[in-house]
Every structure is written in structure tokens, then in C-alpha cells.
Amino acid sequence: MGTDNDWEKWGYHNPYYGVLSADQFRHDNLTEQSRSDFFRSGEIHVQMIFDTIRLAFDTDLSPEMTLDFGCGVGRLVIPFALKSKHVVGIDISPSMLAEAKRNCSRYENCSFVLSDDNLSKVDGKFDLVHSYIVLQHISQKRGLHIIEELLKRVCPGGFAVIHFIYRCNAPTILRGLVRLRYALPPVNYARNLYRRQPVFDPPMQLHVYDLPKILHSMNRLGFTHIHQILDSMDNDQFDSTIMFAHRNVTA
After folding, report:
1. Domain locations along the chain
2. Helix pair angle (94-103, 2-13), 10° resolution
């Protein structure tokens, strides 16, 4: 599919920029310092996840099994590995997974699998299922199905931590032009030229999700305690949330 092919291109040519889209993480700009900053940002994020669960749900989570959906090059897998007995990273890009394996080679409690919409290669249940700045790049129809599959893999008493965009604040005409860029490569090339970026960089699609539909899935699957952190993205053009959801022990 289009977005999957785009992410394999990012994984092959510019994997770190594909994860965090800042110029210092482009392949030609990577230094020891920028790599250190990249992975340090992952440590900060994962610590925030555990701190939030402790404060919002009054529990100190010590996962036996953690799943990171859209793991990229392993930025979050490494800090998860320091807090979990085992971590599974899953990504649609074989090149991303290859880089993640190299980055995590000294951690024996990490494994990686190639993703598909049914998560068919993911076995078992997890105490923590996590996805951050990933689902926004997948169309809502596919993404809602993937979210269901992720939620089903949370064990009773476990947590899902899922980030997605729920509102676009950009003008309608701008949203239409963006959709043209997704569908017509020459429009994307022109946009790259205008922004002085590599001409053939693929688009990073951004998709908005229906928040009530996700809440309905969570409720139906036994996630009755939910905490949210609200944020904005891309110069306030999008509203996003990190949703922390606890699955009932009887689910």
C-alpha cells in the first residue's frame, strides 16, 4: 500500500528522520551528538509513560511483556527493554527493523516482527501495548482495525498507550491540497522543491481519527479506565492525544 511503501523508502534512505522529522536526524546530518539526542528523547518519552501510569492509575507498572507498534529504529524499544522482561518491536518497514536490530543488539530481551494490518506475527498477550506518532501516518479505516488488534493483545489488567490525531484545524482548501500531494507525486515533488527538501522525499501522510469510535472499541473490549494527555502538532494544525487505557482484570 502507498503509505507502507513510503515508510520503507524512509527506512532505507533516512530512517532516523523518518522517526523524528528534524533536520539534525537526516542521514547526511547525523552526528554522535544528534544520535545521542535522538535516543535520549526516547528515554524521556518512556519515563513519561511509566510516570503517567503511576500517577493516573496509582500503580507501578513492571511489564513482563511490552509491545511497541511502529517501533522504527528502536528509539523506544531500548528504554522499554530496561523496564520490561521482554519487548517486541513491530514495524511495516524491513529496513527500519534491520536498523532497530542493530541498535538493540546488546539487549537480549528484544525481538522484532514485520507488521501487517492483522498483526498476524504477534503472539501472546502484553502487559503494555504502546504506539506513538505512528497511527497518524495510516488511514483511519486501516488504523481503526489495527487499534482493535492492538487492544485485543492487552492482557487483563494491562495497559494500552496509544497516540493519534483527532482533529485537523487547517483551512479546508489547505487540507484539499495536502490530499492532492498524497495522491499525485508531482504535487509532492513541487512542495519539496518549495520547502528546499530533497525532491523525491515521499510524503509523510497525516490522518485524523474519530475519537468516539476508538472510545467505543475500548469500552467494548473492557477498557473502562482512561486517562488522556492532549497536545497539538504541526504548528497547531492538528490536535492529538496520548490515550492511556487500563483493561479490566475480568476482560
Report:
1. 2-167+209-247
2. 40
Confidence of residue 2 (pLDDT cuts 50, 70, 90): low
Residue 183's contacts (CB-CB under 8 Å, 6 or more residues apart) are: none
* CA gap 24, 19 in Å, rounded: 12
Query: pLDDT confidence of 74, banded at 50, 70, 90?
Result: very high
Report the chain's terminal Cα–Cα distance, integer Å: 34
Architecture per CATH, 2-167+209-247: 3-Layer(aba) Sandwich (3.40)
What's the pLDDT tens digit per position in 31-61?
A: 999 999 999 999 999 999 999 999 999 999 9
Q: For residues 144 and 7, what is the distance between their CA atoms, to the nearest angstrom?
A: 19
Residues with Cβ within 8 Å of residue 61, at least 6 apart in sequence: 50, 53, 54, 127, 128, 159
